[in-house]
Write a structure and sequence with these properties.
elongated; 4-stranded antiparallel sheet; alpha+beta; Ribosomal Protein L30, Chain: A
């Protein structure tokens, strides 16, 4: 997995030796042989890799480029780099290439939520804005950018309705006094506060009770986590370092 904070803190103007060398178990190689292309998945005699152009990635921004990284990972996971499946190793080899790009985008949307549930909104928004702004025609091997943006929006809306949980995890960096303050600010009763803190102490984490037995929809969970962070700053308590959205399957 690629750490979100590390990726968004990259200095793309650094030399290749200071840039990422691998991601998700695959090689990352600096490649500038396809002008204007931020990344591509390919297979050589050492196996699958993802080539990336630091200049184009920098222009896209960290969140949008992370979406593209997940998109290229989708090509590998779906076997699009396999020449035996009728492609040229880049996934561009036959009439199904546009469909493969759509599948890779869907994979990226699901992976963004699965791997970075608290930050997926930033990743989605940046990628959606990028494709809306560039408005390219896809070059015959990708769907037009405006179509990709519309498809992403559909994927996001679908997954925003899924049930999830907001879970507080035990962490020495977030004292009980801070947890009490946050829970009180959220309107959690004193009895529920005590129960949650006891559960966190005993089991390592506890879910915040949602409006239904299933918890919260993903969209509402994102909003509430954002509000909690704002509230922490307002009441002067540290932001819970392990306030995590989890407990649902973004692939449904």
């Amino acid at each position: 997995m690629v750490d979100y904070a590390t990726w968004t803190g990259l200095n793309w103007s650094s030399g290749a030796v200071d840039l990422p060398q691998q991601a998700f178990g695959y090689r990352l190689l600096v490649k500038t042989d396809v002008p204007g292309t931020p990344m591509y998945a390919h297979r050589d005699d050492q196996g699958d890799f993802i080539g990336y152009n630091p200049g184009v990635c920098s222009a896209m921004g960290a969140d949008a480029s992370l979406f593209v990284l997940l998109h290229e990972l989708g090509h590998i996971k779906h076997g699009h780099t396999d020449p035996s499946r009728g492609t040229d190793g880049y996934g561009y080899g036959n009439a199904g290439r546009v469909g493969r790009e759509t599948h890779a985008d869907e994979y990226a949307c699901a992976q963004a939520i699965a791997l970075y549930p608290n930050d997926a909104g930033n990743i989605y928004t940046a990628a959606h804005s990028y494709f809306t702004r560039t408005n390219g025609d896809g070059g015959g091997h990708h769907p037009p950018d405006i179509q990709r943006a519309a498809s992403m929006e559909q994927q996001w809306r679908l997954r925003s309705t899924f049930d999830t949980q907001i879970r507080f995890h035990n962490d020495d960096a977030f004292p009980k006094t801070g947890a009490r303050s946050v829970l009180a600010w959220l309107g959690v009763s004193l009895v529920e506060q005590q129960d949650m803190l006891a559960t966190i102490e005993a089991k390592g984490s506890a879910a915040l009770r949602g409006p239904t037995k299933k918890g919260w929809t993903y969209a509402k969970a994102l909003t509430l986590v954002r509000d909690i962070k704002v509230g922490c700053r307002f009441i002067g308590t540290p932001v819970p370092p392990r306030l995590i959205i989890e407990g649902f399957n973004p692939y449904n």
